[in-house]
Amino acid sequence: MIRKLITAGALVAAMTAPALADPIEGAWKTQAGDNAMISSCGSSFCIKLTSGDYSGKSIGKMKADGSGKYSGSITKPSTGKTYSGSGKLSGNKLKMTGCVLKILCESQTWNKL
């Protein structure tokens, strides 16, 4: 009886795991018009461009801070330079920001596809 309950519990957990994906995961349209994919990679989220001149290039890695906020690093694909990065999720929009010394910042708003 206990073995059946454990097996049933494991099956339910396996079936609901995809439903527990973080809202940042998925396909996004960048402000520049390229597509990007954000996916789980260990305890972080990796960002990779999937269209445009820099398709296939990894451009960031962030961790969830809670309540739709993320922090880590972001790489500007045109220069290859990596900056302190952050993201703030609001519905189907993601505001991505990269900063040098926390004073010189550049932001883009991405839309979920």
Automatic annotation (TrEMBL):
* Residue stretches making up the DUF2147 domain: 59-112
Tell me the keywords, alphabetical order.
Signal
Q: Does the keyword Transport apply?
A: no
Its domain of life?
Bacteria
Keyword Acetylation present in the record's keywords: the answer is: no
Spell out the Polar residues composition-biased ranges. 70-85
Which parts of the sequence are annotated with region: Disordered? 64-85
Q: Which residues form the signal peptide?
A: 1-21
| Matches recorded under Gene3D superfamilies | 2.40.128.520
By its UniProt entry, which InterPro entries does this protein fall under?
DUF2147 (IPR019223)
- This chain's protein is named DUF2147 domain-containing protein
Gene source species: Hoeflea algicola
